[in-house]
DNA sequence: TTGGCTGAGTCTGTCAAGCAGACTTATCCT
DNA sequence: AGGATAAGTCTGCTTGACAGACTCAGCCAA
């Protein structure tokens, strides 16, 4: 394949999600842990790093700060998912699914995602526009409209 | 929630996939780029880092080294996905899907995944065991069998 | 009204990791 | 013998991760 990957979607996505603690933070927020110290102590993230990552996630529009106030406390902020953040759900579920299969714990998974309405467990499946559900081997990548021919440096 | 995340599947998965260049490398291998220098120049990864990541991915069982020989060249090795590696396909597709939606390029995506048999585009969908296809908001996490009560340090 | 508590940070110094650029190695071809 | 090539290793600089201490704002109780 003679296509550049300079503008690849994976690269652009990893710009936003690619740093070490990002998914840990998103996991916490997804399960309902929204406050700085709760996230920090549960995920065991260094303060500085958490500060930086939260700022980046807000900057990128995946989280937003929402004021809250505990009785007898001053107003503080908690972190909630925006719609773009919520849309990462399939990524999280796919990762958990992979981890539960390939890095299993004795006794079963520590965390299960379920359909709120019926309580049944949730998985991700691959599906093509024609309704088939291919296995990974039945899938291929092809260049899209904005694929760029790769620039090969000429010898000089 | 008073559950520890010390053994969370996301943590265990990120141990394997969480470093900066890992997904870039997997992307290359998924699209059929399997050789050291091809991966390095296309993804623009420092040599040292690529060496380290490939070794880690082999160590974790996501890639394997396969000997090959170009005409008039000595035998070398290329890197191919193992079954656990191939099983990451839904994660990659979910990430690409998210990126194409939330970090779009003018003119459309640079890379499209398609069903090999029918050529139709592939997406991931969330589905529960009862056959529903919930949106992210209709989904919840709950502790599984190996969830551990969180240890809260007592003040002393 | 002073002093302490709490959540959410910032500051500082150390140490590991990322990275670029040069060098190495093994094999093949001419 | 000399050159080409793929796949590395080596060296040194720079950036980021991290722990531990410090800060800051508002609230409360004495």
From TrEMBL, chains A, B:
PROSITE patterns: HTH_HXLR (PS51118)
Ranges of residues in domain HTH hxlR-type: 8-107
Protein keywords: DNA-binding, Transcription, Transcription regulation
Highest taxon above the source species: Bacteria
One Pfam family from the record: HxlR
Keyword Transcription among UniProt keywords: yes
Span list, region Disordered: 137-156
Protein name: Helix-turn-helix domain-containing protein
